[in-house]
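Subject: complex prediction, re-run

Hi both,

The earlier run crashed halfway through, so I resubmitted it with identical inputs.
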Amino acid sequence: MKTMGDHQLKTNRFNCLPEFCGVVLLCIVSIANAQKMPGLAETPPMGWNSWNHFGCNIDEELIRQTADAIVATGLRDAGYEYLNLDDCWHGDRDEDGFIQPDADRFPSGIKALADYVHERGLKFGIYSDAGRTTCGGRPGSQGYEFQDALQYARWGVDYLKYDWCATGEGAAQRNPIEAYTTMRDALSAAGRPIVFSICEWGDSEPWTWATDIGHLWRTTGDIINCWDCEIGHGNWSSWGIMRILDMQDGLRQFAGPGHWNDPDMMEVGNLESPGENRAHFAMWAMLAAPLIIGTDVRDLNPEILEILTNPGIVAIDQDPLGIQGFAHRRERDFEIWVRPLEDGDWAVAFLNRGDESRRESFDFAGEHIEDALTGRRPDFGNEYQVIDLWTGDEAGSTRQPLAVTVGPRDVRIYQLEASSK
Ligand code: GLA
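This time it finished cleanly. Structure:
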């Protein structure tokens, strides 16, 4: 029988050592098989993020206090589980290229901070950018994706928001599919379950390409704490709540368990009136949006806490079917939204965008509500109990018209409970 000679034992037709080839092949195979982490974000992620309220002004003391407040206020028990650092936690890379935190602001290091957060039954998130620098001018991950993912996994990170600044201009701009796929593969190779939040502002319509890459994708530019404004910053704008809501049209077919449209982190608690805060929260729930709190939870007004922890509205957002709601009827300044829920239930929201109070008698029997995407429609031949989600009270049944009064810039939201369950 022909046996391999010494030379053939040590090398093969690729002319490399067997062990080394094995490692390389393993890497190639694992990258070729890379997929986004399965089983995460089966319902829209809920948590807190530092950016909307604190911007770059963050440090480890704030994050520890926030972790404690999320527990003490009951926000954790209401479902808010991720505590996410946004931009500006970064220092420099070390001599081996590993990213380090800003040593003045995070002297105990990120691992210790993640441990503190985990000990309180929460998960820990971090932020980076697909370009050379973040939007705040800190080191980005371009060219360091696998090393950064490894570092995050070592620290115990559970969520990565990945931004799109400094990715080049015009023809020289980085390809977003390549950029986000590279980081997805890096996270996959690092092996830790990390929710991957794509923050590319909707520019290249990530809903058309990111289902297998990220768990959520921003659909718009940045949100800001006003009802219906556009604030220009030269070549980009930030948008009020109603503007962002309008930009969600046409996107519902792309959302579902594990892959969500992200109309940006909430400004609940940062808006002027209780009504505006209520309307923002309820509409994000109708959209099956990630519920990421963007206010200071260490000093939360009880009314805002009540909004954020409303169990019925949180349950609508987290409905396991994950079917995004839609506008059933739109008039000037007044909209009626519906959303199909598990077990044949429906959510109905009456949104008053204007400055005058609005009264409506909503006669279910006369309404033809149909979800064109899934073919679902409520059968008003059967009776549904109508629950007012702000008060938790029964508001009659669908056999009678519902009398609804909605204050200026406010919402009324109801759950229709199928009695045949
Ligand atoms: C971009 C993002 C924001 C925030 C900032 C941080 O503008 O869209 O959500 O992360 O960067 O610099």
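Residues 51, 86-87, 134-136, 163, 199, 222 surround alpha-D-galactopyranose (CB under 6 Å).

- K.
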